[in-house]
Specification:
- Helices cover about 50% and strands about 20% of the residues.
- The chain is α+β, with helices and mostly antiparallel strands and about 190 residues long.
- α5 (about 115-125) crosses α8.
- It is globular.
C-alpha cells in the first residue's frame, strides 16, 4: 500500500580497502545491512537528511532489498538478519515516523554505530508500543524474565536491544541469550 512517509537518508563512507573508499547514500534501514556486510568499523556515517517520500510502498522497498542484496549469500544473510520479512521493514519504518506536530532536524552530526543503535533503542522506548519493544522497561528486568521475552521480538529489535544492553549494563548472560536467539532464527 503506497503512502506518504518520512524517511531518513544517510550518507555513508565505506572503507573497502586501503585505497578504496566508497561514498553512498541509502535509506536509514539499509545502514545496518551495510555495517553487517563490511563491518561496523569500516562504515562511517557522514550525514543524515530527512526526506518526505510520496507514494512509498513497503512491499516494493522490501522487494528492492531482496533484489539488491540477494545476489550474494553473505549479503542476503545480512539483509535477512534485519529484515527477514516485509513486516519487519514496515515495523522499522513505522517506528521512525515523526509524531504529529513534531519534526526531526534535517541534518545531524555523525555518530558512532554504538551511539546510533543506543539512540534507536531509546527512541523506541519512548514510543507507544507493546511492552516487548519498550527496551528501557524490558532491560530493567532480570535476565531470566528478559530471556523469555526475546522470542517475541523482531530480528531488528534483537539487534537494537543488544546494542542498548551493550551500552548499558552489558550483562554477559543476557548478551549470550540474545546471540542464542539470533542464531536460532538463522537455522
Amino acid at each position: 500500500m503506497a503512502k506518504s512517509i518520512s524517511l531518513i537518508f544517510v550518507t555513508l563512507l565505506i572503507d573497502r580497502d586501503a585505497s578504496t573508499k566508497l561514498p553512498t547514500t541509502v535509506p536509514e534501514y539499509e545502514q545496518s545491512i551495510l555495517e553487517e556486510i563490511y563491518g561496523e568499523e569500516l562504515v562511517t556515517e557522514l550525514s543524515t537528511e530527512e526526506v518526505q517520500v510520496d507514494d512509498f510502498d513497503v512491499g516494493i522497498a522490501f522487494a528492492g532489498l531482496v533484489k539488491k542484496y540477494g545476489g550474494n549469500a553473505d549479503s542476503d544473510a545480512a539483509r535477512a538478519r534485519y529484515f527477514n520479512r516485509e513486516r519487519d521493514l514496515e515495523k522499522f519504518i513505522g517506528n521512525r515516523q515523526p509524531k504529529a506536530g513534531k519534526s526531526a532536524p534535517a541534518t545531524a552530526p555523525a555518530k558512532t554505530a554504538a551511539e546510533k543503535k543506543a539512540a534507536e533503542a531509546a527512541a523506541k522506548a519512548g514510543k507507544s508500543a507493546p511492552a516487548a519493544t519498550d527496551f528501557a522497561e524490558l532491560l530493567a528486568g532480570d535476565v531470566a524474565s528478559i530471556t523469555v521475552k526475546l522470542k517475541d521480538l523482531t530480528d531488528a529489535d534483537l539487534v537494537a536491544i543488544e546494542a542498548a544492553e551493550t551500552e548499558g549494563q552489558a550483562r554477559e548472560d543476557l548478551l549470550a541469550a540474545i546471540d542464542d536467539e539470533s542464531e536460532s532464527r538463522k537455522q
